[in-house]
Design a protein that fits this description.
Elements: H1 6-11, H2 18-26, H3 28-52, H4 57-83, H5 95-101, H6 110-133, H7 139-166, H8 172-187
Length: 201
């Protein structure tokens, strides 16, 4: 299913654990609620980058498109939730994004570069998880999650390309650092299920 995106699969350190997939199937309402939150956060992140880096023309172009697409995805998830009578509510965030962001440097342009690399991991992992879930979901949800793969993969590519564009040096070392952190976050057990959590404790 992800064979069309070999660069994305090579970028991620590991596949999602099977135990996480089973956990997701047992918590589909929470999965949808958290997915809606993730789409909103993704749009917010893109908008935040647009406000912070107004002089970066290519970033403005890519993030504007990304923000629009993420909000459309939010609307689609919310529509599915209403159809399935799933109430939208606040959820505590997974430790995933914060765990990655803790390593973001504070000086520029390193801060921007690291933020973009983190964005690439979030989008790549989302794509991988949608593909892992799709074969096990009902027809409607499966079709929806499969429909997201192309845009999520493109978002990953955009984030990674921007990171290299705005870096003063090759980003391979920074990508390797975040890959090690991402692998730990994905494989270590979690107490509560989230779209980006590890397997159950």
């Amino acid at each position: 299913m992800l064979s069309s995106y070999p660069e994305l699969m090579a970028f991620l350190p590991c596949p999602s654990p099977e135990a996480w997939v089973h956990w997701a199937l047992e918590n589909q309402e929470i999965m949808l609620i958290d997915h809606a939150h993730c789409e909103k956060k993704a749009a917010s992140t893109a908008m935040s980058l647009m406000y912070r880096y107004v002089e970066r023309d290519n970033l403005l172009h890519k993030m504007s498109r990304l923000a629009r697409e993420e909000l459309i995805h939010f609307e689609q998830v919310h529509k599915l939730m209403k159809k399935r009578q799933v109430s939208y509510q606040h959820l505590a965030a997974a430790r995933y994004a914060d765990g990655l962001r803790k390593q973001i440097r504070t000086h520029e342009p390193a801060r921007l570069v690291d933020t973009l690399i983190v964005g690439a991991f979030v989008e790549a992992r989302s794509c991988e998880r949608f593909a892992a879930l799709a074969p096990h979901l009902d027809d409607e949800l499966s079709a929806f999650y499969l429909s997201l793969l192309k845009s999520e993969a493109r978002h990953f590519e955009d984030y990674l390309a921007l990171a290299q564009e705005y870096s003063e040096e090759d980003i391979t070392e920074r990508v390797s650092l975040f890959r090690r952190i991402e692998e730990k976050l994905i494989l270590e057990p979690d107490e509560v299920f989230r779209l980006h959590s590890g397997p159950p404790n």
